[in-house]
Amino acid sequence: MLIRSLLIMTAAIALGLSSPARAQEAEVCDASSEWDGAAFANAMSLTTLEWTPFDRMEWGWETYLPLIQREIGSRCAPSSGRFAQALAAFQIRYQLPANGVFDAATFQVLRGLLQERRPFVMARVRLEPCPAPPSLSDLGYLVAEEEHADRLTRLLRRDVLDAYRNMVAAARAEVWEVANDPEKLQIFSGFRDPEADAARCAQQGNCDGLRRAVCSPHRTGTAVDLYVGHAPGLAVDDTSPASRLYMSQTPTYQWLVRNAGRFGFVNYVYEPWHWEWVGPTSESGGR
């Protein structure tokens, strides 16, 4: 019995839970047998679904699981009836077939919801002009401990920098991985000068692609690329499916998904490292 209790506490810490009391609040993942078929389908497709959620073929949807779990309000595994039941409730809410089975149509709704929480993106959808960068007086300098060695970034809007520091302090108190690795949640890209950014994207030939946009949210000083870990041999912002899957499974990223909204940050669904500050009144907090 003691061993079982220790295992529960260890799992709770790994998930960012801060106390045995919260561990006891663990969700019951069993559901009525009517969801068994959906649970089986989800368990199978989690790693085998062939689809193109963005511009390249991917196999499985495990990379997006933390975001899906937060949105449907369940941390249960896709192989559980409770996950299928919660997914069906989400599907009903957005007028999709309520079968509890994950599919591309369900993901597109989720993706749209996440994109709508990014004011920068919505302004671009409305064809508004690319925003001017903040004045230098509105930008603050990062300290050395906040900058990741893989890249060099110096500036962030002052209010965003304050929110970032509060978030990191909370993560270091709540997540063992962050507490024990000073690299975790360091910034490898913050404010980017628009002219220099445009020159780089033109030189690399990837303007408005998945890697760099002519009008990037980084020009606003409110976007940060955070180090959440990286697969061996791959860059901290490698967009390959294997790289993004690796990042999505780190305790650091999973804590961010559940908690970054408390500090006003939202995630770009395609990039586990990219977060944008949308203000302290954001309704994007994890469930």
Provide structural commentary:
With 287 residues, the protein is an alpha+beta fold. The protein folds into 2 domains: 31-116; 132-277, Muramoyl-pentapeptide Carboxypeptidase, domain 2 (2-Layer Sandwich), CATH 3.30.1380.10. The protein contains 12 helices and 8 strands. It has helices at 2-14, 20-23, 36-48, 65-72, 81-93, 104-116, 119-125, 158-174, 176-179, 194-204, 241-248, 251-259; strands spanning 50-51, 58-59, 139-141, 155-157, 187-189, 223-226, 265-268, 271-277. The strands form 3 sheets. It has a 4-stranded antiparallel beta sheet with strand order 5-6-8-7. Strands 1-2 form a two-stranded antiparallel ribbon. A hairpin with a 2-residue loop joins strand 7 and strand 8. The longest helix has 17 residues, at 158-174. It is globular and about 60 Å long. The model is unreliable at 1-24 (pLDDT under 50).
Brief overview:
The protein has helices at 2-14, 20-23, 36-48, 65-72, 81-93, 104-116, 119-125, 158-174, 176-179, 194-204, 241-248, 251-259, and strands spanning 50-51, 58-59, 139-141, 155-157, 187-189, 223-226, 265-268, 271-277. It is an alpha+beta fold and 287 residues long.
